[in-house]
Amino acid sequence: MSAVVPLPAPEAITVRAAAKINLQLGVGPIRPDGFHPLATVYQAIGLYDDVTVGSAEDWSLTITSHDALDIGGVPTDDSNIALKAAHALATHSGVDRAASILINKTIPVAGGLAGGSANAAATLVALDRLWDLNTPDEDLLKIAATLGSDVPFALIGGTAIGTGRGELVEPVADNGSWWWVVAESEVGLSTPRVYTEFDQLVQDASDPQIDRNLLASLASGDIEALASRLSNDLQRPALHLRPDLREVLDVGDGHGALRSLISGSGPTCLFLCADHASALAVRQGLHAEGIERVQVAPGPVAGAHVVDYA
Ligand code: C5P
C-alpha cells in the first residue's frame, strides 16, 4: 500500500477575467450616496486581462501589456483596485500574508469595459486559491461589491442582470452565440464625468426597469430582436463629451453591423454583427477609415477563472 503524498500548494496562480459590455444600461436619478440606480444587462465578452499572484514577503504590483495597450493611466500604488481587492480578501479572511500581483492587460483602460473590475475579480479568485481559503461565492460577491459596482459581474461572467448600483447580479438565459466588434479610442473617458454629464442632460430620469423584451431576445437567441433592443442611457452624455465617436459608430453601421452602441460610459464603440465573417468585414471597414485598434470578440464568455498554476 502506497502512502498518499499531498501535493505542495501552488506557488503562483493565474486567473483570467473578461471585459464586460452592457446590452442595456438604464440609469435613474442620482442617489443620496452619489451613485445612480441601474437596470442593466451585462455580458462578458472575449477580451481578457490575466492576473498572476505569487507568494512573496512584501506586496508588489506590476502592470504589463503584451498587446501594446496604453497602460500609462493604471495606478501601481494602493489606489489600484486589484491591490484593494487583495487587502479586502486578506482582511475578510484574517490572513496576514503578502503576495506579488502581475496584471497583463488586453482590456482597454478607461474604455467603458470594466477592465479594472476584471482585475479586482481575478485577484480575489487567484488569492483565494493561493491562500487555500475556499471563500464561499456569496462572500466573494459581497467583497466584490465593496470594491466597485461592476466587480460582482466580473466574478460571474456570462450574461446577467445588474440592479442596485449594478452590484446585485443575477444570471439570465442567453442562448445566442454573439459576435461583437470592439473599437477602442485613443483617449479614455472618466466614468464619473459621464455620469455628471448624464445628470446635466437628463433632468427627468426615472427609476430604470429591466427590458423584458431584451431578455426574451437573449433567451430565444434572436439576433435581429437583440439588435433592436440594445440601449445605453450613457450614450447621449458620452457622445456629448466626445462627438467624434458618432463617426466611428456610423462607419461600423455602414459596413454591415446590425447595431452600433457605446460601451458603458464609453468611449469604446461596439458593433453587434450577424456572424464572424460580418464582424471581420466591420473591422476591416473601421481599419480602412483609420480606426486602428479594433478587435473581434465573442460573447457571452465565462467569469473569472483559473488558467494556469505552477
Ligand atoms: O462603482 P464604481 O467605483 O465603478 O463607480 C465609479 C464611479 O462611477 C462612481 O464614483 C460614480 O461616480 C459613478 N457611478 C454612478 N452610479 C453607478 C455606478 C457608478 O454614479 N451605479
Q: Which features characterize this protein?
A:
single chain, 310 residues, alpha+beta, 8-stranded mixed beta sheet, 4-stranded antiparallel beta sheet, binds cytidine-5'-monophosphate
Question: What does it look like?
Answer:
By secondary structure, the chain is of the alpha+beta class. It contains ten helices and twelve strands. The strands form two sheets. Strands 1, 2, 3, 4, 5, 6, 8 and 12 form an eight-stranded mixed beta sheet that branches. A four-stranded antiparallel beta sheet has the order 9-10-7-11, sandwiched between helices. The two termini are 29 Å apart. The model has no long low-confidence stretch (mean pLDDT 96). The protein binds cytidine-5'-monophosphate. The site of cytidine-5'-monophosphate has 11 residues, from helix 5.
Pairing-aware structural class of the strands and helices? alpha+beta
> How large, in whole angstroms, is the Cα Rg?
20 Å
Largest sheet: 8 strands, mixed
- Strand proportion: 25-35%
- Total number of β-strand segments? 12
Whole-Å distance between the termini? 29 Å
Q: Helix count, per DSSP?
A: 10
* Element-by-element helix/strand order: EEEHEHHHEEEHHHEHHEEHEE
Low-confidence stretches: none
Give the distinct bound molecules: cytidine-5'-monophosphate
- Shape descriptor reads globular
- Helical content (DSSP H or I, runs of 4+): 25-40%
The overall pLDDT, averaged over residues, is 96
Give the arrangement of secondary structure elements:
Elements: E1 12-27, E2 38-56, E3 60-64, H1 81-93, E4 98-104, H2 115-130, H3 137-147, H4 151-156, E5 159-163, E6 168-171, E7 178-183, H5 191-201, H6 212-220, H7 223-229, E8 231-232, H8 235-241, H9 245-254, E9 259-262, E10 269-273, H10 276-288, E11 294-299, E12 305-309
Parallel strand pairs: 1-8, 3-4
Antiparallel strand pairs: 1-2, 1-12, 2-4, 2-5, 5-6, 7-10, 7-11, 9-10
Helix pairs in contact: 1-2, 1-3, 5-8, 6-7, 9-10
The site of cytidine-5'-monophosphate (C5P) has 11 residues, from helix 5.
